[in-house]
Amino acid sequence: MLLKKSLKLRSILINSCFKIKMKYLIILALMLCANRQGYSQEQIPETGFSDVIVKKKINGKICDSCRAVSVVTKEYDFNYVITGAGHTPHRFGRLKGSFSYGPSRPRAPLVSAYVISQRNIGISFLPNFLQENGNKIQLYRNFGGPDYTKLEFRAEQNGKVIKPWMPLSALGENSNYAILGINFPEDKFIPVLWKRTFYAGDFNLDIMDSLKVTVREITTKKLLQRISILRAADTANNFIYYQLPLGDGGLNANLQDILNLGRGEPVAFGGDTSTIFKKDYGSIGILLYKGLTFQDEVEYSFGKNPYKWKSLTALDPGHGVFLVLPSDMTAGKDHDIYLRYKSQPETVHSITVSVKPPPFEIPWAQIAVISILILTLGLTWFYLRNKRNKRKLAALKQKNEDTETRLSLLSGQLNPHFLFNSLNAIQGTINNNQEKANAYIASVASFMRDVMDNSKKEFVSLQEELKQEEDYLKLEQERSAFSYTISVSTDLRPSLIDFPPLLLQPVLENSIRHAFGQNLSDPTITIQIFRDTNNLNVKLADNGITFWNSDGVQQGHGLSLTRKRIAVYNEKLEGMSIQMNVNYSEGSGTITTFTLQNWLS
Q: Between the CA atoms of 131, 135, 136 and 137, what dihedral angle is there, to the nearest 10 degrees?
């Protein structure tokens, strides 16, 4: 009897358990069916989500097949999502260092910095938990962090406040993106809409605009988070240019290395160091972008007006995205290619690919005919040129002889001129002092001998010219009282410098005979010789009261001969010339400057 009761009770318990299991199985199946029909916002796991997924919305509905570009920042105390832009690309690494990351001590306000390429972004704050009816509902990995309903935020663009302090509790949801929670493994859990997010809004950034979003506690004003974002100029020049030959099996080996191993033989600098690349005719040119993510989409165009943009896509952009240039590009021409990142269409990078002409191939018979023709033309040209050169040499020789004759005639005219002036000086001295006149005659004779010797030469050394001019000044000092100084720059060697003989004497004579009046207390002549780059300068100055080169004063015969000699020298010399310039300043005297251009080169 007891055994029967026991068996009956056991049967009742088994049936009850079976009915309970069936009930729960039916409920679980209904729940799964409901989840398969759409994303649920109510089914939040008791332990919170372990990860975040961002999906685009189209017409208010979540698009599973649409790629959403976003940054999900998961921190212990604070979480947020930046939609419309990804993490800082590797090419912006150096710019990211310009941001301040703030103190690293625990509980200090955390500063996160991003350098992005996209124009339009949005920021949503993700709480770890929500407060409902005095209870905490866990949404994320833990219960850490603040109560978001007790926080406020502010946004600044380029240092100017665009959104003043506003409580997070007053913010709504992002209507363009859906933020969902997920637990691992993903194939066993369906993404669930985040129960509550706080959307700070959309931000539109021009190139080099900066955005700073600050979050703090409402009551204590304690700073909790600062997000700094810079939209940098994103030039699509971070590529390497490769060239691959088509023949001799080189294409297969090189292409295999580039595609599989990421290596090859570059024939030009990277895109960040050059904009012009040369390409052999018939070869394949490749632009390789490395280190990209699925968020970085490169576009290219072979025409500018209008642009016909095409996208470069790859299954794994991290291993390289390739732009293969056609092997049949027109030879001997420059081809412009335009590149940009899809995320920043306003920044277009232009490069030029210069295709070399094809190898020069001519049949041997034509080469022989052309060679004979060139040889015949060359011999004819050489004969005509040789004949013309002989005529030119004969004419040049005749010209040089004429020039030398003219110089000799001019120098011959100078000798009687010096003799005439010296005889006048001797005559005046004899009338006063016969003994002094004899000494003076000897000095004049020696001076005239030097003059006659030098007049036969086309050039003398600067040292010889200065000595002869000093002898002349000493002779003149016997007749009239004046002083003189001669200075030569230390960087010149007068003994090694050629100089036209007797070029300075007529100028010195005019200063002595015409510039110095009877009322002048201290008549002085100064001779300075210096260089100016390749030019030799000779400056002669007197402190006379009369401008001897003016129309009111009769110019001496020697000065006229000097100007004629300069004209002949300038006609003869090639690449060199002599310029003479005379200036008078009342109260200062007359300054005569000889500039011998390219004399010291």
A: -90
Rounded distance, CA 214 to CA 105, Å? 19
- In the CATH scheme, what architecture does the domain 239-355 have? Sandwich (2.60)
Residues with Cβ within 8 Å of 92's Cβ and at least 6 positions away in sequence, in order, are 115, 117, 232, 234
| Per-residue confidence (pLDDT) for residue 551, from 0 to 100 | 59
User: Above 60 in pLDDT, residue 461?
Assistant: yes
Domain ranges of the chain: 51-231, 239-355, 382-597
Query: Into which CATH architecture does domain 382-597 fall?
Result: 2-Layer Sandwich (3.30)
148 pLDDT tier (thresholds 50, 70, 90): very high
Please name the amino acid found at residue 235: T
HSE toward the beta carbon, residue 572, CA cutoff 13 A: 20
**Structural element, H or E, at residue 255:** helix 250-256
Closest CA to 170 of 155, 151, 157, 145: 151
Question: What's CA 288's distance to the chain center, in Å?
Answer: 24
Strand order in the sheet with 524-532: 483-488, 524-532, 535-542, 589-597, 577-585
pLDDT tens, position by position, 101-114: 444 444 445 678 89
439, two tokens: 């000494």
Helices 462-477 and 364-430 pack at an angle, to 10 degrees, of 20
Using the structure block, give the residue that is written with the tokens 């060359």: 378
Instruction: Decide: 271 and 241 in contact? Cβ < 8 Å.
Output: yes
Distance CA 192, CA 470 (A): 111
Measured CA to CA, the distance from residue 85 to residue 344 in angstroms comes to 11
- Give the integer Cα–Cα distance in Å for 145 and 215: 13
The more confidently predicted of residues 205 and 512 is: 205
- How far apart are alpha carbons 510 and 74 in whole angstroms? 99
Q: What is the pLDDT of residues 406-431, one digit of tens each?
A: 555 555 555 565 566 666 666 666 66
